[in-house]
Queue: 2 jobs
Job 1
Amino acid sequence: MSMTAPIVQIVDDDRSFLTATSRLLRASGFAVKTFSSAGEFLAQLDTDAPGCVVADLQMPGMNGLDLQSALARSSNPVPILFLTGHGDIPSSVVAMRSGAEDFLEKRAPKEKLLDAVRRAMARDAQEREERNRQQELRARFDILTKREFEVLAHVVQGRLNKQIAGDLGIHERTVKLHRTAITTKLGVQSVAELTRLTDEAGIFTASAPTFPKGQ
Amino acid sequence: MSWVTITWSMIASACLTLAAINFLTWCRNREAWANLFFSLLATGTTAFAFCELGMMRVATPAQFGTVLKWAHVPTWLIVVSLVGFVRLYLKAGRPWLAWTVCGLRTLALALNFLVGQNLNYLEVTRLRSIPFLGESVQIPDGVHNPWMLVGQLSLLALVIFAADAAVTVWRRGDRREALTVGGSVVFFTIASAGQSILVLWGIVQVPLTASLSFMGLVAVMGYELSSEMIRATQLARDLRVSQAGSRENEQRMSLAVDAANLGIWIRDVARNKIWASAKWRQLFGFTSSEPLDFECILRRLHPDDREVFQQVLTEALAGVGSYDTEFRLSMPDGGLRWISSHGQVEFDATGEPVRIRGASRDITEHKRADQETQLLRREVAHVGRVTMMGQLASALAHEINQPLGAILRNAEAAELFMQDASPDMDEIRAIVADIRKDDQRAGAVIDRIRGLLKQQPLNTRELDVSELVGDVRALVRVDAAARQVKLQVDVPSDLPLVRGDRVHLQQVLLNVILNGMDALNGATGGERCLRVSALCNETQSVEIAVSDTGSGIPADKLVHIFDPFFTTKPNGMGMGLAISRTIIEAHGGRFWAENNATGGATFRFTVPIAERVTTK
């Protein structure tokens, strides 16, 4: 929901390279922040700042891969792309498997770097929008009562009112009342629309295991 | 019977027994001359005892004279056999004295029969009866024969001869024999001669009892001979024991030899005859009946090892005295066998070698294991070197990529900044300053690496090329054998000295030779030969060439072989020839390669001659 501009955050222990890279990215129109170690970066991690991280793979102390996993666990998992002095296949494989945006040599052509940064930015924006939309949708479901939620779970599976009433041990008319309340609260017209909305919010897919009876 | 009869009979019989025993001893061992003479001595004593007994019992003076005359025959026998016994048993006594004694006694015997009634009396005139040992015996009266002195002189000579012999033996160290034999001969001769002089000149009135003295002599000599016999028996027993012991030693030795897989041989140097154990013949591939000489063994040696072996042997024979060497055998079945040989030379008093004894052992397995280990070690070393270079290269790339990357990014940023309508000149200045700084940083990395790899300064001195080649040859000899490459060295000994760094030049030559062997690895047919030669060329330098009989260098690669990191080998570094050329050029020489007209390649390099060559 933040309106702040996306920022490229660069992490490299080589100060000279850090400065040079930040200059290039600034000259190319990006907002840039620099950190000379992974620790420094994580300490100042903005929980909501959009953008991406460009990190040196080999750094003293916490290296690029450690930074990647710490970032993935954080509340702001921005995309990360790695730079390295020379290609190191095992590390690059680990990095890419862990979802690194890219893996570039330090002396890679400017275009490759900028493209990678732009791609990372775009991916962040997309992921961020996805995350926000889901959060908004989920917020809409928050107003449902516990019983309405239970009924909804059955409805999206395409079950009939009679079946739902039997399963939940309530009267069929009560089920109908709950369904009306759900459609009203969520502002949907049809069961199809209701199912799509539930899907998009990732309500039951994300937390399916908490509904064992759903089977 | 009376005491006289009993005593004299016993003397006679005892002596006769001893005579018979010793005569039989002599019959069985014809070299026991001492026993024969002893037998004669005892026989003479027996006869003399009978004569004495006869003289005591005669009835008329004429009979007495006759018996006395015949008594001189056993006396002669006793004297002569005593002389013989002393000469033979003691191995002493002057020959001329011995001949004098025998001569005088023989003369006395002759006079005994020629002059008067006997040697002692011209005529026995009467007999007198006197009591002797409880019996009445006859003693003579008569006209003395002056020639009697000849006989007594012979006895004196005998005493002198025996005393002289005893002294010689005493001085020789055999004191017991000197005392018993020499002493008793002197003592009993003086006793018997003294008594007979006193009796025959009529100074004392007793019968002749010289046989008692002779009996004493026989007893001492008999004792001496028998103790000699006991000693001989003892010796024989000792000998048997020691023979058994040496047989035991021999068996132990042969057990050890078999266990150690040793082949034993002995070579008679002068007659060029060789005895060798069955194991040795098996090792060297000779049948058990084949006659051996040095040449046929030398022919069994691998042709490349013959010269070295002969040299080692020559040194050992010339006075070193022993050798330890290893060589290969070309077996009749075409196989190769490694032998370790140890030999010891035995010299005679004049320092000439008489024979060589040696032991040989099959070390083929050992050698093979050794070669495998060496090969493995070399491979490990190579891998280690490659890994190290890899790490070095990796570190180098990282170190240099940082500043280079920074320079690149700064330059790219500057370009972008300058596209602005009004570029931020401060920013651009900062960028340029950073670029300069990073360039210096990259330069410093390169300088550091160069410092690491910097060559040690050359330690040049005057070098003998044939020595240099010999050193390297020794280093690669085992390798060449393992890879079945014949290494032929053709370096004249009169080459001028060159100036160079020994270790560096060895490294170059080693490198080129190992390369040559690698080139031969591929070659299957034909002779696998590597030839190292040297000659003095007109440009005041010595040219060393290493030619192989491999497949040569493809024309398109000939120009690249000295480039760093250029290699045709799957696990090569491509640094050997590059470094070698650098070393040779640092020496002021040239290094090049060419293909031979007859196949294979030749690598040549030159090393300048040392300046002082003209004074050499």
Job 2
Amino acid sequence: MRGGRRLAGKAVVLLLQLLLAVVILLPFFWMLSVSLKPATEPFAIPARLWPDHPTVDNYVTAFRPEFRQYFLNSVIVSAATLAITIPLALLAAYSFTRLQMRLLSVFLVLIIVAQMFPSSAIIIPLYKMVKGAGLLNTYAALVIAYITVTLPVAIWMLRGFLAKLPGTLEEAAAIDGATPLQAFFQIVVPLCRPGIVATAVFVLIVTWQEFLFALSFTSTKEMRTLPVGVNDYIGQYGIRYGELMANAVMISLPVVAVFFFLQRHFVAGLTQGAVKG
Amino acid sequence: MYYPMVGTVYESLFTTSFINPTPKFVGLETYRRILADPGFRQVVLNSLAWTAGVVILQNVVGFLAALLLDQNLPGQGLMRSLVLLPWVLPGVVAAILWRFLYDPQLGLINSFLIGWGLSDHGVEWLADTATAMPAAILAAVWKGFPFSTVVYLAALQNVDREQIEAAVIDGAGPVRRLLDVVIPAVRPVIAVNLLLTTILTFNYFDMVWVLTRGGPLNSTHIFPTKIYELGFGQFRFGDAAAYGVISMLVLVVLIALYLLVQRRARA
């Protein structure tokens, strides 16, 4: 009797999980389905979930030169942001965990609070600063703006990992004659690799999709990033949903792939830094 | 980051417009005008509805999904990463995707409604002032709940198993166990996460901007979209900055609360 009830309970849980999976995946599936639908195949009512003759035509058309430019811009800006954020955050987080100074914790709170403030509230003066510095329509403007967003979170996440490494490791290294810098690069960094990977994935997800700064600081087609570029498409190619969805798939693929490849590290890192902080 | 905040306050004391781009000092005049403007009231009410709607639904759905995934069943690893997919999806892409799902003629949602005979012509979800905000909230919940799920899942897995087993021996059913043991144990995480999602939702620009641009008839304009439109759509930098200052004040309160709750949660 008890066993039967437990089995029934498990069946209900599985059923609900299946429902959850459908709710999550249906929009993705629809995006993929429409992107593979030939332009000649009409939208039926009720909707047909999979096209009769799937084709990659939409992808070929949608991979137009300007889209390639947006893609390149996004790659450059994300890579530069990542390359600057991670080393800086690592050094900052390390000093936060290893140096005992009262002022540091105040500073740490200031960093986190600054990060929570709305980009939209400061977008006007930021725009004027960028314009005044002659940086409108440059990669530099975006990279600098993104670092102000990613650096605090990265410091916060990495601090969670570094705090768990016992300080005795570096003491042992010091006894063996290693300088603090050697101890940092040869012991702390390798041990912290899962945390670094998790933080890097997070930074990538954030910069790859950033919209407001990119929308405000770039006005030429040559400099737009993917989110801004594809937002323009709604007006330009709004009715050609097949191509729009093909673009959407192409934009999502890199982050989704990185995420799936590294998700194990990532989920642990996210909860570590964000919640237990 | 702090320098531009001061810049916003400074900026809000001047007025500019598309026709008259040279800043002119007006002191607090801009605030007086905005506070008397019914449009401002609408933005406040919209922001309230948007933030409350998204935060409550996102946390409820997120918590329930976490409970579902906190089971010893095969295939949970896959489900746990699957659940994060909407959160990984770039915000603009998610918004475009939902715009398409809501499309009156071609969208999947209306297609189902018509197919099942629930509606004969399809609903213009994003073009109707009554449905635009709920539609935007629903899309944002789909995009945002995975984050809450992951946070809650981590908290649930830290709940003391012995306490749960003790409750089982005392004859407590699953619902009793949830209310008396599990929820009290994760309450600090719930409090922190509620405030964190409130702050993030209040600031959330992409979804509403791409779905509706604040329309129809301003029915979905929230602080971030209003600021952007005033500043970059109409070049009324002073007005935009004044809205920015007001939204900063709201956030000061929220962030102070957040820090307080987080400190209490850790103690």
